Amino acid sequence: MNDASREETGAECLLRPGNTNCGGCGMSTGLTMLGRALAGEHYSLVIPACCGIVTAGAFPTTAYGVPVVASTFASSPAFASGVAAVNGLNPDEDEKRRHVICWAGDGGTYDIGIATLSAAAERNENLLYFCYDNEIYGNTGGQRSSATPAAAKTTTTPGGKGERKKEIIEILAAHRIPYAATLSIAHPEDFRDKVRKALAISGFRFFLIHAPCPTGWKTEPADSIELVSLAVRSGVFPLYEVFDGVNYRINAEPDGTDPARYYERQKRFSGQEVDLQAVRTSSASRISRLRQLAGLSGHQFA
Fold it and tell me: Taking the CA of residue 171 as centre, how many other CA atoms within 13 Å lie in the half-sphere pointing to its CB?
């Protein structure tokens, strides 16, 4: 079957049926959207310790439709750099470009893997890095990470996390990489367009996906898409791009939705005082800053 036939029939998918993922898993939806955006492309995945590497299932079967390398928790960008180097030494006979993709959770990105992430970004390795951000260590018991938002209850912050969420896009932008962007599974067209755009760019490209985890967020699986939609509409999770670390573009303008609607749907924020006014102020401030940066770049909106 040729590439065109695969794209038309869906016979070869990145995420196959029979995987071990939970219902309503944002990572699963993200993988499905990524596979659709990469239809017809040649690529492989490097996945560190996270829910994504458990997805494959038990040996000798796999739920992935492409070659996958399992890396140590801290080292997916280092492993991927090696894969890319070997690809460069062994070009495809049909001369098609092969993409190397890191697929990691927030634990392997914000925390444990940030050293090798920073190193690969500083070297401008020719990689695509996707962080599916479910805001906890979902595969090891639901502990807090530096991606966990303030006031969220986790197994290690039962009274609610006291610190704010780390700004990972700003950290990567400071490396002056060619491209960084946020993605939402509630905006599939934006998701596909950004991935396709990144495929035409060489160097290190970074994506942050807002990926709900019903188990950790204490939400209903059927609510996952609506939750991340509320996050975009309220400004809690803005959709934007950063080119060369300095040029910003906003992809979706918040519609005035109160962030309280996003927080109230998640039991991880129940049972303790959540300063919703502080959330509103923070969200508005973030959007205002993005508008200013996008205005300086000359293209405020996509």
Answer: 16
